[in-house]
Amino acid sequence: MHEAPSRHFDIAIIGGGFAGVYCAQQALKRLRGRSMRVGIIASENHMVFQPMLPEVVGGSLSPQHVVNPIRTICEAADVLKGEVTSLDLESRVLTLDGGRFTPHVTVTFDHLMLAPGAGVDLSRIPGMSEHAYLMRTVGDAMKLRAAIISRMEEANLITKHQQRQEMLSFVVVGGGYSGVETAGQIQDLIAGVLRYYDNIRADEPSVTLVHSGERLLGMLGPGLGDYTRRCLEKMGVNLIFNKRVRAVTARTVQLNDGSTIVSNLVVCTVGNAPHPILQALGACGAVPLEKGKVMVEPTGQVKGVDKIWAAGDCAAFPKANGGLCPETAQFAMRQGTLIGENIAATLKKKPLKTFQFTGLGELATIGHRKAVAMVMGLRFSGLIAWFMWRSIYLMKLPGLDRKLRVMTEWTFEVFFPRDINLLTPSFSSPLGEMHLEKGDSLFRSGEPAQSLYAVKKGCVEITDANGQIVKSAVAGEHFGERALLGDGIWRFDATAKESTELVAIDGDTFKTLVKSIGSLDSLFRSTAQQYHLPEEIQKTVSAMPEATRQAIAADVMTRSIASLTAEQTVQDAVAEFQAHPHSTYPVTEDGKVIGLLRRSIAYDWLKNHGLTCRDVLKSLPLTTPFCVRADMPVPELVQTLMRTGVSKAVVVDAENRLLGMVTVFDLLKGSSPSV
């Protein structure tokens, strides 16, 4: 097995959002001149400026202008792109999955900053996870915008008014910042591009915002909330208050009062959940959690855990004036900065600072050059608030180049129409085809398993650590299920024996299918038994009696067995089934084994050809027998049976004449109970 690559950081930061990036910047600044390694571990190599994502949906901004490469804004930090799969705070080690071609990376650390953000759980609403669009990443925003333009293009081809209405019905769930801004931007986008679609009437597209509360943007107070409602209604957005989504289907949104909204496109801006890594840490008692968030001191330290810090959406971070900090960028930035300072102070053995920031205010765009804002206790709305929103967030946007690009795009938007190009983002397919030449390596032991493979053409040899062939997978066969159903690590090497074509099924898709279809789960768990490691086979052999280990197949086989000849009829076989009930029977011709007859095959044949048919057995679809030579040593026989996944073998002589049968049970007679 190949040794996993490793890293060590004096300060490791999980998360590439505002809290993680600003923590790294401040720590590097405070520790300048010291040989300290700071590492940022993030699922993406860029930081997303979340407040501007709705403008990507509306076409006001290009996607690349609301993200910043972490490597350029934290040049002195090491950036590792990947997902943290395990985290041991006691040993101070984490494991990172870097992708399909990268072995799992081990990272050790002294100080750890937890800022992975929040997770998403839409499972509480049936159908939401299957049908809803999210608004968390740039990819989400691009996908949503492409879907809206695509609906417009398709509706333009439809002649029936009702069908166009249904296709152009857009529903946004959630009346917080993200929901309000997204609904406003979708309405603005539709209004801006409608004139280019001759066959779509102005009354056919609709945007509906569903909110479980009584007022939008409740954190801004009743005045600004009511103003937001009036603005959205004037723009044409339908507002539904005090109702929750009960279920989502491919064509409808069903509410808890029994009413239904016909819609083909649903955007969900609710459903935050604890990050899986934090859930795991909380479950084992490694960190204290409060409603799924890590409990921290005012200094940013995780309560009761040394050298572990947390900030951002994942942390229950206390405010200076009481209560907990809201999940907004302005608080995450300052929390990260404070923790960066305090980690540096800890290393310099200086006193720590506490979090003093209480917030400057809140802002939200409504669309159509209107916004609402509460800044320093003062409330603003309309064009002034919209100008404030753009000015403040432009200043907060990291990087001078991004500031200039965004400012230019906003200026162009005033004079030029919105872009209606349909640029559909390309997403990974759950199925992919691969070509290998002879000698090409598909995977090596120790690498992460990402796919199940099916062979279309050619052959792939799977070998163990001793170089012995575990399986030669040929056309029509598959492999990879053991690793995907287990710990996700390859335990064997796979190499193309000849020019080969494969179909790769994405690991997540495979697991979903296996979980959903019980027969697939049974099938793959059965075939996974073929891939036994040398030590597993040796353990089985060692548990056998000494006499059995020294024997050959002829010594342990059952000689008196029920068999059939090729010239016997189906009726003869049925009589044999009744006299000697077994699941399979060897079929011979001139004493040589030509196949196995399963009882189920014979009964199916009778059902399809009539109960009185007199067909001979060699006309039936016989199963290819698994044959072994009589002189095969038992240890080799055990390995052969275990790696082929069969429970019994036909023992034959050099001329393939039937001598007997041997089963796994025959071999394990007298073994210790542990086997």
Q: What is the average of the pLDDT values? A: 87
Number of distinct beta strands: 39
Q: Provide the low-confidence segments as ranges.
A: 670-675
Q: How would you describe the shape? A: globular
How much of the residues is beta strand, in percent?
25-35%
Number of domains: 4
- In angstroms, what is the radius of gyration? 33 Å
- Sheet with most strands: 7 strands, mixed
CATH class of the largest domain: Alpha Beta
The CATH architecture of the largest domain comes to 3-Layer(bba) Sandwich
Helix content: 25-40%
CATH topology of the largest domain: FAD/NAD(P)-binding domain
**Number of separate helices:** 22
Write a structural description:
One of its GO terms (molecular function) is NADH dehydrogenase activity. This is NADH dehydrogenase. With 675 residues, the protein is α/β, with parallel strands linked by helices. It folds into four domains: 6-43 and 82-118 and 274-359, FAD/NAD(P)-binding domain (3-Layer(bba) Sandwich), CATH 3.50.50; 128-271 and 363-415, FAD/NAD(P)-binding domain, CATH 3.50.50; 431-528, Jelly Rolls; 536-668, Roll (CBS-domain). Helices cover 32% and strands 26% of the residues. It is built from 22 helices and 39 strands. The strands form eleven sheets. Strands 1, 2, 5, 6, 7, 8 and 21 form a seven-stranded mixed β-sheet that branches. A hairpin with a 2-residue loop joins strand 35 (584-589) and strand 36. Helix 5 (138-155) runs antiparallel to helix 6. It is globular. Mean pLDDT is 87; it is low at 670-675.
